[in-house]
Fold this sequence. Notes:
Helix content is 41%, strand content 23%. It is built from 15 helices and 17 strands. It has helices at 8-20, 25-45, 69-75, 143-155, 197-210, 219-226, 238-245, 247-254, 258-261, 266-273, 277-287, 290-306, 353-373, 389-395, 397-400; strands at 2-6, 54-56, 77-89, 98-102, 104-107, 109-112, 115-117, 119-125, 129-141, 164-167, 181-184, 190-193, 231-233, 313-316, 326-330, 335-340, 377-382.
Amino acid sequence: MLVELDAAKLISPIVHDLHTGGATPVVAIERALEAHIFQCFQNSLVSRLIKPPRVRLHESYFKERFANLKSLAKSGYETWYTEVCCATATGDKIEGLEVSADGIDLLPIDYGFGVSKTIKEKTSTLKRQINHTYTINHLRLGKGLFEEISDTLLSSKTALPQPLIANFTPGPDIMGNRVVSYDDIVTGARTFCECARGFHTTLHDRATEIMPQYAPGSWPEIVASMFDDVTYKSGICHLCIAKEKGAEEAVRYYGISIETYFPGFMDQIVHDLGVDEKTARREVMHILNLNRWVRESALYGVIRELFPDQRVLREASPDWLGRMRIDIFLPELKLAIEHQGEQHYRPIPMFGGEEAHARVVERDTLKRKLCLENGVSVIDVRFDATITKSAIKQRLGKFLS
């Protein structure tokens, strides 16, 4: 039995994801790779599986989370220990499964004593099923793939609606010196938001002053060099977009990485407002309405727990949805779950007021229409709804039976 992976089939979904907005190249790669591995195992084993396979790709192994396509064309992308879990009926043990790949390097890991494996297999026989776990030890995507993705984007008649990556690690991750840059997805050309210029001037001057005390190439030199010949543009950062158009718009531009990396803005707030770090944290969370993302993350966790045998995708963008995303999507069940913030129900001055509310309502209406046309049920979870396993289970009862 053979599972065949093909790098060429990653290009279209990656390009689509980047055209949708809110995705970095690395996130788009991992989404496409996970979906491709799922589909390949599903297609090859469909007659024997008693439930859909589950794919777990470990994001933490690839460290350059905000890499642009130009840098990926130099380094490639690689990850380790990707797991595929399958279940067959009792007595139907899968024997001799092989995985081949075209344009994807599957590399062995040396276990010692002359044993090296590309795929590690583990089988567990239970009362009602046999669980099979296939671990792809080391997977690498070559540089040519990213050159082809870049060429596809550059030759497209439709320009990227949002061509920038929010890069939360453009320099040393040292408290007091954290900055956020906005890099071109294809070329990597770097831009900073105009609102940060004063903070950057202070960082540059301070780093230049202490540079002689450090060895060449140390962090003060790196910080100072970050601001040599830089470009600034007004209104491009999360904070400026959130203040003008609402926090959801900032996430629509740059994706949900802000829920993890928001401390990248704290040092600028400390500098600009003259406050301590704790106050700066609260200020950033307030501007970006991060409580909403805490709730959505909790909701995602509950859904994963309720549907352990289903694919549960966050910020999914099926082809038929155009440039919009579904908060939580279970494709095999044709179920979309949307966490609806307060601004979906009434205008909120701090989130863009009437204009932002009108945009949100228009987008919600179109999204619901497209979902229904494609046979997808939409369940809304209000901003004030209880997010517990029992409460959500009650809402989703018909999908659990």
